Amino acid sequence: MRADVLIIGAGISGLSIAYTLTKRGVKDIVVVDAEYVGSGSTSRCATGIRASFTSEEHVVLMKHSVELWRELSKPEELGRYGLAFDQGGYVWTASKDESVELFRRLVTLQNSLGVPTRIVDPDKLKGLVPTMKVDEAKAALYDPTAGKSYVFDTLNAYLMACRRKGVKIMEFTSVRKLVASGGRVKAAVTERGEIEADTFIVAAGGGSKELMESIGIEVPLKNLPRHVMITEAFKPVFSPLVIDWDAGGAPFIVQTKEGNFIIGREIAEEPEKSLKSVRIDFIPTAIAPIAKWFPWLKYVRVMRYWMGYYVTSPDHHPIYGPVEEYENVYLACGYSGHGYMLAPVTGKLIAEWVLDGRPSIPQAERLTLRRIREGKLIEELAIVG
Ligand SMILES: Cc1cc2nc3c(=O)[nH]c(=O)nc-3n(C[C@H](O)[C@H](O)[C@H](O)COP(=O)(O)OP(=O)(O)OC[C@H]3O[C@@H](n4cnc5c(N)ncnc54)[C@H](O)[C@@H]3O)c2cc1C
How far apart are the first and last CA of the chain? Predict the structure, then answer.
C-alpha cells in the first residue's frame, strides 16, 4: 500500500492533523491505529480546554487552539457532526497569599499574550460557581476563554469529517517499525504489510517512542498513569472547571454536558505502570479536597473510575515537528496531559510544517525535539487537565 501522507495514531492528534491536511488540499491520507479510534489517552481524558498556562509557549499555542475550538464548533465545520466547545471557563482557587501573588503575575503574563484571565474575589467566585463554599478562598484566577468539549462527540466529529474527505482509517493495524534509508523514511511495517508514503507523521501517543527508536531517534517520553472518576448525573450545577491550586496534586471537578461530575487529582505513580493496576485509594484522595469546596458531594455516587497515561516529555511541553536526521517525518506527541486541548492547533502546526516548511506560530518552533537534545527545557507550573 502507498499514501501521500501516513499518520500513525488515530487519537485526537492524528485525526486533527488528518482533517487539517484535507482542508489544505492533501488528498491521499492514511491513518493507522494499533487499536481503535480514540483508544489511547484520548477517550480517557477529562476534556478540559484552557489557555491559562504559565509558559509563553503553552499560553500562545492554547490561545490559538481555543480560537480553533470555537471555529470547529460552527455548523459549517465539525459542529455539524456534533462537536460543541462549551466555553464555561476555568477557575483556579487560591487559599494562600503567596498563591494570590503568583496568580497576579500569571494574569499579567497571560493578558500580555492576549488571554483575558483575571483575579476574582470570593464573592465573584461564588457568582461563577453558585453551589461552591468559598470561605477558605483568598481569591481565584478566572479564565473565561477556557471550557470543555465532550470527548466522544469530538472524536466522532473528526472521524466522520475525515472519512467524508476520503481519509482512509485503518484500525487494529499496529506499526511494528519504520524503515528508513538515505535520510528519508520509506515505509511503515505493519502486521498487514508495508505502507509506503512521502510523509510520515508520528502521533502515536506513548507508542511514539518505540516507533522512533526503530529509526534510531530517541524521543524521551514516559507513560505516567493518571486516574479520574465520574459520578452519577445531575441537572447543570455550574459551568467552569474548578481546580484547587493549593491542595497539591491539582484536584479538579468539572460537570459534563450529560450532568455527571468528572473528578481528578494527581497521585504519586510510577511511569509505565499497567493501566490495570487499580488504585482504589485514589477515590477518597481526590474527593476529599474537592468536597471541601462542594460539601454536597458526599451525597453523590461515583459511577466509574479509570486510568490513562499522561505521555510526558522532560519539560511537560509537546514535542512537535521535524527531526534533523530525516526530511519526511514529523512528531506530534509528549503533551504531558494537554493533548486534547492542543489538538486543533496541533493539526494546524503539523500541516504547516509539512506543507509550508515551518509553522506560522513562532513559539511552536521552540517545541521541536532539538530543545530537549540541547537541554533548553521550558518550564510549566500548571500541569493539569
Ligand atoms: C486521566 C486523564 C485526563 C486527561 N485530561 C486532559 C484534559 O483535561 N485536557 C487535555 O487537553 N488533555 C487531557 N489529557 C491528556 C490527553 O488525553 C492526551 O494528551 C491526548 O489524548 C493525546 O492524544 P493523542 O492523539 O496524541 O494520543 P492518543 O490518544 O494516545 O492516541 C495515540 C494512538 O496511537 C496508537 N498507537 C500507538 N502505537 C502505535 C503503533 N505502533 N502503531 C499504530 N498505532 C499506534 C494508539 O493505539 C492510540 O490510539 C488527559 C489524560 C488522562 C489520562
Answer: 38
pLDDT of residue 229: 98
Around 379, how many Cα atoms within 13 Å sit in the side-chain half-sphere? 2
Torsion of the alpha carbons at 350, 6, 183 and 177, rounded to the nearest 10: 120
pLDDT given at position 380: 86
110 Cβ closer than 6 Å to some ligand 1 atom: no
Taking the CA of residue 39 as reference, the ligand 1 atom at the shortest distance is 49
The answer to whether 6 touches 30, Cβ cutoff 8 Å, is yes
Domains in the chain: ranges and CATH: 2-51+152-220+315-373 (3.50.50.60), 90-144+223-312 (3.30.9.10)
Helix runs in 145-232, H state only: 151-164, 208-213
Residues of the chain with pLDDT under 50: 385
Atom of ligand 1 minimally distant from the CA of 13: 25
129: which DSSP letter?
S
- Please choose from 20, 42, 85 the residue to mutate so as to test ligand 1's pocket, defined by most ligand atoms within 8 A of CB: 42
